[in-house]
Amino acid sequence: MTASQDLAALCQASGTRFILALFVDLNGKPCAKLVPVEAVDELATEGVGFAGYAVGAMGQEPKDPDLMAIPDPASFTPVPFVKEGLAIVHCDPHVTGKPWPFAPRNILKALVRQAADAGFEPWVGAEVEYFLLKRTADGALVPADDDDTAAQPCYDARGVTRMYDHLTAISTAMNTLGWGNYANDHEDGSGQFEQNFKYADALTTADRVITLRYLLNVMAAERGMIATFMPKPFSGKTGSGLHLHLSLTSGGARVFPAADPAEDRRGVGLSDTAYSFLAGILDHAPALQAVIAPTVNSYKRTGATATASGASWAPRTPTWGGNDRTHYVRVPDAERLELRGGDGSANPYLAVAGALAAGLDGVKRHLDPGAVGTGPGDSLPLTLVHAVDALDADPVVTGMLDAALGDWPEAGVGSVAAYFARLKREEFFAWHSHVGSWEHDRYLTAF
Question: Can you state the angle between helices 285-292 and 348-364, rounded to 10 degrees?
Fold first, then answer.
């Protein structure tokens, strides 16, 4: 079957009448055009055009040619629970017939190819944490549930029940799509929730994170709520993470569990390859934070020392441990590693790509993570600008961002890593130049 026939058949089988041809920019903003099923052949063969500069952080200027979003039929996702007859298909942006290197999905695909070249297939699970909020009459943001006021609301059965309609609608949507939703819970902050789905290959999981964020946003809005993935919406409450569970197979065989207990050099059941993969993540953690915690607000989560519940659940140093949630990398079992440094503002394609790049570098260099409970001795960056400085100094993480340059030599379109770093520095200094209420309270009558 051709791509056109594949997409047309999927539309017919699912009763789809309109397709959201969707991709995200480097900041994770979802961009789409609504395409009627009557134009499915044109969509599949030519894609649909966007003015790249208008999209946002995509490395284009107003003078540049169109971004053409080419759909991936394997990502076709009917979403009739949003609108009857609607489906999403994730797209790979192209320019002049070539994959555009600033497109996050293209970057992750390049890292998956690098993993394949090294003999591995990467698998990823993602924990999507978010808050459900509303605005009061005076514009203040508060939890959508007026009764969600406990100091320690995590796992509260009453809080889950009060949000039953929302949570079950999202759960039903995920299971209808075959994602395998297996748990839905109230998290540690007032108004904070998490809904889990089974792991999959790296690209599929990243697509699903984007789709889930879309579903949460639009389905919460229908109930008069705001679903936010902002890392730290309230100074005194726990922030929202995007924890990634990472594993590798090789020719379909599991790589991370130690085949022989004698091979286990650190005592938590991992193979040499898994320990080196873990060590690579720790070694590149400061630079990796610029990708997996990519906003000014991110560092108010990782820098938190106290919350209403008594714990921030966000790592402050790049250490590793067994089934211990205080570390940057947790090893819940011998099948996987959990990277806990990322947050809700992370672009999932870049976050997964960054973790793969760091881990594969550790494997290539045969790194050792050190004893359980330790790390390389670095601290995580204090602010976004510190993280960008670390990014600039790390050729592995910058190389990941530039991984899709391919037919676009740097002299032709510039470095994606340099562009990303510039955007993030501009973001930091835009915040830094803003005068807010904290400064009024501290300085107005202090002198």
Answer: 160
